[in-house]
Amino acid sequence: MYLGNIMLLVLNLPLINIWVRVVRIPYIFLFPLILLFCLIGAFSLDFSMSAIYFMCIFGVIGYIMNKFEYEPTPLIMGFILGPLMEKSLRQALIIAHGSFASFFGKPICVVVLSLAALILITNIMPYLRSKRMAVGTGK
What we know:
This protein is an all-alpha fold and 139 residues long. It is built from six helices and no strands.
């Protein structure tokens, strides 16, 4: 990591003028180039059109999320941590012989699940209050 940062410093200091010029390129010219490089990168992963289709689908999903002001962080974390969590859940269920009761038997599990439920409820409450206020005022 240190070596990478040193190389980045060595390369970026002399090239700062070029990066400033790149930033000044109008968006109408820069966007097609970025899209082209993304398409080339997606295709070069396994040389199949399905990677390009997936990239386009997720691009549209990202655009919709941006339009409706959704945070992308939970989605990215879900993609990264989802398979690991599924594997761990499968292992825990195999150890417990398929019983979900093992998740509620230990005090630490009950505390963590209670905290998760509390966080979920505190995030939902403002939405429910605004809905109730809107119904009460007739909007």
